[in-house]
Design brief:
Blueprint lengths: L1 E4 L10 H12 L5 E4 H12 L6 H8 L1 H8 L8 H20 L3 E3 L4 E3 L7 H9 L7 H15 L4 E4 L6 H14 L5 E4 L1 H7 L14 E2 L5 H7 L27 E4 L2 E2 L10 H4 L5 E2 L2 H14 L7 E4 L6 H9 L6 E5 L8 H9 L2 E9 L3 H7 L5 H14 L2 E8 L6 H13 L6 E6 L2 E2 L5 H4 E4 L8 E4 L7 H12 L3 H9 L6 H4 L4
Parallel strand pairs: 1-2, 1-5, 5-6, 6-7, 8-11, 11-12, 12-13, 13-14, 14-15
Antiparallel strand pairs: 3-4, 9-10, 16-18, 17-18
Helix pairs in contact: 1-10, 2-5, 3-5, 4-5, 6-8, 7-8, 12-13, 13-14, 14-16
């Protein structure tokens, strides 16, 4: 089987989805080939990007190879100013390549003028005209050779982000024209969300042979006529270019669970889509990490990235008791365990460099309406304790939920300002109503962003706080607070949380 991670997304760590599938396939004796077309495609465009004529573009093109090399070494991350310039210059070269194709292309995103990843008609049009895609010269040359070499019985695409959808469908169209008899499976996080949307009508018949929701291991193994065993298999990154990612060493992504163990927040897509929670035993996780470290030799991985919606307390306790010998970071829920200084110090000794925390709001009534299950007094204590233990925090805030108005948003501003010394990084988001949210029937009005594949619905805010007013508050009040502005300035441009731990 040929497993493909398509463009365009951040190319700073190997793709965990196809690595997990490869572990299962290889564990069942089924050979597979992995292709990170995202990393390869971006490097292909960078190498062949037309030289700009302005001073910035000329400098960026001249220093491209040096900047790419610097992004792969720890020294650059010791100087935030130099890092910012290197990222901006590499991104400038990629932007130049996109201009001729009428798209906004960056190291973190892909937006094509006149083509919406939320429209099945637009994606089908991308498949019908693959040569119009900017990555066509790359994949039209790369895929035939790889198919000739590996002779796959099935090709699988892992589609996780909207920014990957246009090129995924261009690649699908190319393959269907060139190899009409070769079956194609389409899975990944975005596809799972489509399939679990009650309004999805399977518009890709004839282009995609198998659309898979959720974990695809069993389905792929059965499609390949294998006998499926539910026994756990360690992910396999063998065959991926582990030294080529844009990071100062290998970032090893790993998921110890699927879904969310809390699974009660009204705003959360996990709840809206009904995704079940599944957790690996901590002992299995530690054994997997040890195997992955050994398999990545020569060269110790630089960082372990837990992909869980929230690393469970049981796993954190296991990591504290039996450190993996590798620095790590990931999402965690604010809990009493993280308010204990002895535990947090043990967690830091285990290698925990940074925790991402979904604070969401600094107003208790808003948190209660969300069913977040968090107390602001506890949140403040957790922030202080993590800071005292030397663990950085990446705090996520969500503005514009149905229970919030300008008054409550200002409470969030006040909370962040009071605790700014214990907050390392901030992520600000404006609320989108998932189509499957329990609140949607009461407030939804119409599709959010035009397109039959939209996962969100527009809604009439119960307190009259429009998105325009929310953005005005963020731009004119929240971001201008001196203490908050300093936090926001720390955020690594474009790579954001994926590189943040290297600055802790």
């Amino acid at each position: 089987m040929l497993l493909i991670h398509p463009p365009a997304a951040k190319a700073c760590e190997p793709p965990a989805g196809i690595a997990r599938l490869a572990g299962a396939l290889r564990g069942h004796g089924l050979p597979c080939t992995l292709l990170d077309a995202n990393l390869e495609g971006q490097l292909f465009l960078l190498a062949g990007s037309p030289a700009g004529t302005d001073t910035w573009s000329l400098r960026a093109g001249r220093n491209l190879n040096a900047n790419l090399a610097a992004l792969r070494t720890p020294v650059l991350y010791q100087n935030p100013s130099r890092y910012r310039r290197a990222v901006a210059d590499v991104n400038r070269v990629l932007e130049q390549s996109g201009r001729g194709h009428h798209l906004a292309l960056s190291l973190a995103n892909y937006q094509e003028q006149g083509l919406s990843p939320l429209s099945s008609a637009d994606l089908i049009r991308a498949a019908e005209n693959p040569e119009a895609n900017i990555f066509f010269p790359y994949f039209a040359a790369r895929l035939p050779g790889l198919i000739e070499e590996s002779r796959p019985a099935l090709i699988g695409f892992s589609l996780n982000y909207l920014s990957q959808a246009p090129t995924t469908f261009a690649m699908l169209g190319f393959l269907k024209k060139r190899y009409p008899g070769l079956p194609i499976a389409l899975g990944g996080g975005l596809v799972t969300s489509w399939l679990r949307n009650p309004n999805f009508r399977s518009p890709f018949a004839g282009l995609v042979d198998h659309c898979l929701a959720g974990p695809g291991e069993e389905a792929l193994i059965r499609l390949l006529a294998g006998d499926f065993s539910p026994s756990h298999q360690t992910p396999s990154y063998s065959g991926l270019p582990l030294a080529n990612y844009l990071a100062p060493g290998l970032i090893l992504p790993y998921a110890a669970s699927a879904g969310c163990y809390w699974n009660r927040c009204l705003f959360c897509p996990e709840k809206a889509e009904g995704n079940p929670y599944q957790q690996l035993p901590p002992a299995t996780v530690l054994a997997d990490i040890a195997r992955l470290k050994a398999a990545s030799q020569p060269g110790q991985p630089a960082l372990l990235h837990f992909l869980d919606n929230a690393v469970s307390p049981a796993l954190m306790q296991a990591l504290a008791a039996d450190p993996p010998g590798l620095d790590w970071y990931g999402f965690a829920r604010i809990s009493p365990l993280l308010a204990e200084i002895d535990f947090c110090q043990a967690l830091r000794r285990s290698g925990c460099r940074m925790l991402k925390l979904g604070l969401e709001s600094g107003d208790q009534s808003v948190l209660a309406a969300m069913h977040k299950g968090q107390d602001l007094a506890l949140s403040a204590k957790v922030l202080q304790t993590l800071a005292a233990a030397g663990i950085a925090t990446y705090i996520y805030l969500l503005f514009g939920t149905p229970a919030e108005s300008l008054s409550e948003a200002r409470h969030t501003l006040d909370f962040v300002a009071r605790h700014h010394q214990a907050i390392t990084f901030l992520n600000l988001a404006v609320f989108n109503m998932p189509v499957g949210s329990p609140e949607a029937p009461a407030v939804a009005r119409s599709a959010f962003y035009g397109g039959d594949l939209s996962l969100y619905t527009d809604f009439e805010h119960p307190r009259g706080w429009s998105r325009k007013e929310i953005r005005r508050f963020l731009d004119q009040e929240f971001k201008r607070h001196p203490a908050i502005a300093r936090i926001l300035h720390r955020d690594p441009p474009l790579f954001t949380s994926n590189h943040a731990a290297f600055f802790c």
